């Protein structure tokens, strides 16, 4: 008969989205019914499990498409699952960073070759740099290129005033990494290190960060873990040691700024634009600002300029973006 232990284990595995564990408990229950001579129930349960396994297998093999894994139960409030379709062609990075990110992707694509030599792909990364320079986008691109789900950790859901609860929630997420291979993205991870409690509780923030670092250190799944921060200086040196690589994001060079703009203006005839004039107007804008300005310019071109995208239209859009940041 189903006992309390099995019931609790099933609820737990359901909450964690651990289908394999859930099904193996169901099989265990079927086996017990079988032994007690309740063959009808045993058979029903066993058939159900088999058909679910078949479906999961089919989803997995269908053209290498990642099976849809939706976080359930408590985990659903802590991570958001998406299936990015972005790829490297969408991402504009400086040469060094571009090479590094390509290398990460390759290590995972070719991990079998690495494993044959007793090596493993690197899995724990820290991205730091100003807002809008592509940290979140890189996490999506890595997931997209590797056909993995992207699990964005919702730190607001993780951080509670009660230390014990934060640690328990982090544990749920780190357990999920073992159960479902994916890219786990901790955005603005510095929030873990700065207390949001009522009374600047430094001790509390420190314990929260420490439990994150400890989970990170002990973690040995196949998932990729990326933490991002806009304030590298807020981070303790202790945090860097726990990552296998730390990548620095920067605002774009004039050449990269042009690439971002061009990528967003593909439908327009922009070959003969006065690019020298345009790039003079991009100073200090992030890649996100440039992408937004390009979209603004595209709308202006369609609505005000008979679909013609001129340097003037683009420069005006860039100036308007700069003005938003109070730097015109
Ligand atoms: N390096 C980049 N290359 C191309 N587009 C970018 C880049 N960085 C930012 N963008 C554009 O800006 C948007 C927001 O960037 P995001 O990755 O969220 O920045 P961050 O996480 O560093 O704050 C992206 O969705 C994309 O449209
Ligand atoms: Mg981001």
CATH superfamily of the largest domain: P-loop containing nucleotide triphosphate hydrolases
Radius of gyration: 24 Å
| Helical stretch tally | 14
C-alpha termini separation: 73 Å
Mean pLDDT: 87
| Largest sheet, strands/sense/barrel | 6 strands, mixed
CATH topology of the largest domain: Rossmann fold
CATH level 1 name of the largest domain: Alpha Beta
What is the H-and-E element order?
HHHEHHEHEHHEHEHEHHHH
Strand content: 5-15%
Helical proportion, percent range? 40-55%
Bound compounds, please? adenosine-5'-diphosphate, magnesium ion
Q: What's the architecture of the largest domain in CATH terms?
A: 3-Layer(aba) Sandwich
The overall strand count is 6
The assigned structural class equals alpha/beta
Side by side, the strands of the main sheet go: 1-3-4-5-2-6
The tally of domains stands at: 3
Overall morphology? elongated
Low-confidence stretches: none
Describe the structure.
- With about 325 residues, the protein is of the alpha/beta class.
- The longest helix has 23 residues, at about 40-60.
- It contains 14 helices and 6 strands.
- The mean pLDDT is about 85.
- It folds into 3 domains: about 5-65, no CATH class; about 75-250, P-loop containing nucleotide triphosphate hydrolases (Rossmann fold, 3-Layer(aba) Sandwich); about 255-325, Helicase, Ruva Protein, domain 3, CATH 1.10.8.60.
- It has helices at about 5-15, 20-35, 40-60, 95-110, 110-115, 135-145, 155-160, 165-180, 200-220, 235-240, 255-265, 275-280, 285-305, 310-325, and strands at about 80, 125-130, 150-155, 185, 225-230, 245-250.
- Helix content is about 55%, strand content about 10%.
- A 6-stranded mixed beta sheet has the order 1-3-4-5-2-6.
- Magnesium ion (MG) binds next to helix 6.
């Amino acid at each position: 008969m189903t006992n309390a232990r099995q019931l609790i284990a099933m609820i737990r595995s359901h909450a964690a989205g651990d289908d394999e564990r859930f099904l193996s408990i169901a099989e265990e229950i079927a086996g017990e019914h079988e032994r007690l001579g309740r063959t009808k129930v045993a058979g029903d349960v066993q058939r159900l499990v088999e058909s679910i396994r078949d479906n999961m297998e089919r989803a997995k093999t269908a053209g290498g498409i990642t099976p849809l894994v939706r976080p359930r139960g408590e985990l659903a409030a802590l991570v958001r699952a998406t299936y990015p379709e972005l790829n490297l062609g969408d991402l504009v990075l400086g040469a060094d960073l571009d090479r590094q990110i390509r290398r990460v992707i390759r290590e995972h694509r070719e991990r079998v070759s690495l494993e044959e030599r007793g090596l493993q792909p690197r899995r724990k990364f820290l991205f730091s740099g100003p807002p809008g320079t592509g940290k979140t986008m890189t996490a999506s691109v890595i997931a997209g290129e590797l056909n993995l789900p992207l699990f964005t950790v919702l730190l607001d859901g993780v951080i509670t005033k009660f230390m014990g609860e934060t640690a328990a929630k982090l544990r749920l997420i780190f357990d999920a990494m073992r159960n479902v291979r994916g890219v786990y993205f901790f955005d603005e991870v510095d929030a873990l290190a700065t207390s949001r409690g009522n009374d600047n509780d430094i001790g509390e923030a420190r314990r929260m960060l420490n439990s994150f670092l400890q989970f990170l250190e002990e973690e040995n799944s196949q998932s990729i873990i990326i933490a991002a921060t806009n304030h590298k200086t807020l981070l303790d040196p202790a945090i860097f040691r726990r990552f296998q690589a730390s990548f620095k994001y920067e605002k774009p060079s004039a050449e990269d700024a042009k690439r971002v703009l061009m990528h967003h203006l593909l439908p327009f005839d922009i070959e003969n634009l006065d690019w020298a004039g345009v790039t003079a107007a991009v100073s200090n804008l992030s890649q996100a600002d440039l992408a937004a300005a390009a979209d603004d310019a595209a709308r202006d071109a369609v609505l005000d300029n008979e679909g013609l995208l001129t340097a003037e239209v683009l420069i005006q859009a860039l100036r308007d973006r700069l003005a938003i940041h109070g730097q015109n």
